[in-house]
Amino acid sequence: MNNYLGNKKALAIFLLPALIIYSVVLIYPVLQTVFRSFYDWDGLSTPVFSGLSNYKELFGDPLLGTSLKNGAIFALVLVVFQIGLGTVLALICADPRTRGRKLLKTAYFVPVVLSVTVVCQLWIAMYDPTNGLINRLFSLLHIPYEQNWLNSPTQSIIAIAFVNAWQFMGYQFALLYAGVKAIPEDYFEAATIDGCSKWRAHLHVTLPLMRETFKFCFVIAITSGIGAFVQMLIMTNGGPGTTNYTLTFMIYRYAFMESNYGYACAVSVLLVLISLLATLVINKVFDRGQQA
Amino acid sequence: MKMNRNRFSAILLTLTLSIGLTACGSNNSASSGSGNSEGNAGNSTIKLKVYAQHFDEDTSKPFDYAVEQLKKEMPNVQIELDPAVQDGYQKLKTYAATGNMPDIYFTDWPTLQTLSKSKNVELLDDYETTSEFKKSLNPGVDSRLVAPDNHVYAYPDTGIEFQIIYYNKSIFDKVGIQTPIKTFDQMADAAKKLKDDGYVPMSIFAKEKWITTAFYNGLVTREQPEGFGAVDQKGVKELPEAFVTAAQQMKKLQEAGLFDANATNTNYDQASSLFYQGKAGMFVNGQWEIYSSQEKLGDQVDWMYWPAKDEATYEQSKYFINGAGSPAGYAVSPSSKNKETAVKVAAFLASKSAEYRYSQLGSPIVAPKVDKPIPANVPAMMQRIVNELLPNAQKYALLLNNTAIQNAINDNTQNLLVGGFSADDFVKNLNRALDKEN
Q: How many CB atoms are closer than 10 A to CB A11?
């Protein structure tokens, strides 16, 4: 084995197929997208070089503000719900004294395997302002908070983000649970013997040791929020108006509804840059925490 | 030897990458067509691939009838159907991008414009078939064949379709609403009466933005017969008065409770079943809904003209039609190996499809004239259109070509159905779009 690892030719031969596939399916399209973003192009005709005009237009596009704000709200809801609640549930399920742990673990993961369309249709019915379960519950509990959930210009994005958060919480939960189980129990036991309460021990021992898991979970949640699309498409079609637009929805609109592929490429480049920036910031924050 | 091996590896790597990358490229010049070359055709079979709508009875029956008739007229032509999918013509655009265009394809005006720029549609202007088709057109429907740039890209089968307001006569009688509703104040009053009696006043599938746009256009056409065509001109930087009035009227109707609270999340199936189950007093859709509504509600259902600001305006404008003709239909690919035949077949398919719609389905909304009798069992509502509306039609709305303005109207008319969005917001957003585009 060591012979192979020291042999550069052998390494190159083994890596080459993967490198070629990676280049063709990922790097090449990304470079093409960047390249096309400098062109006025309808997807079929010969592209006309337009320099930075797509980017200039993009930064004056009223949809950009809406999309960035919605992406940020979506990401925030995912972080709070998936990572916050996912962590609490992971800690509960990791405790050997919790009864029915297997059942709970399965229950939390079940929504992940359901079809997004089915889940969205289910929640559309639950959010219905007149006959929906959510408003009925508020009414039964005499809480005057009935809302027009999916039509409200301010609340609908949170309502939609919640559906994504609910469905994929189990996925984050599985990662966090694996992270908790990877920490040797001795640390936790030593802390409790030293007089720490259970939750205090988790706060000072378990959670700091899960830094790498959290880093990964944050990257997934935030980039998923920024690039959210399917739930908006199915639940409100981006509406009312453009209330629930995100960057991905903008790409869909300009590329497929307006045949303005050059401009859609510019939005795609911005989406990739924002996602990369978010990933870098998350890595930086978590690495700094580790050094401290 | 070592050097040679390195060179060999480098050449191999370059070749692999080149093949991989070229595979992703496209070549629009690649020919389609699955038949023989036209020059060699003679009496042998000519195969033509046709991309056409063929997903329900409304689309498959007229097409199948046209193909049957074609077998009699041109026995040496064999049609290979490629059924269109309801994907906004993305599949067709993919064919164009990969150089695999079918010989004949059915498409709409926005797609024709894109395909025209990329030279994927044959210009039909100078074909003799086109002049014959032009002569056969029904009066007033030229805009279905001749594009705003004066070119002919496709042969249409249907005429100019339009939107009407359907209402349930039994519910109106029960609630005490006088018909016809002539003014938008009467419409607001009717909405209140229906709502008070527990009905959804108007069922609308506003998850699709075009229907809110159509509703708004209906109000606009009461004072501006050109409809959206009036904002599609250079120099129009602000919304004309008729459009502002229509936005205010639509907002007032929303505030009067005309539309369901969940209207912007209601799809066609949900909206139509509310109407057909007798839970909604009114329903808005195109004239093509007549067959379904007559079948499901029988004599209980009828249609009405769009309301206006007062009765005088209503009487003056009720024959301004809320529907604009846009070029659409059977187009021909310039890369077809049997282009001359394909042009003839495209026109034939359009004519025969129209013939079926007219003579079998009783639909008078067809582009070419049909010299056959309309069947006796035409729904009463359609007969009203034939007897009352079409002979008196004063003007059809004009086409809005600008996609950006169209999208701005779509977005903002949908917003008018939601609380917290005012008519002033509508005007401000539209003025911004007009200022940028015109």
A: 12
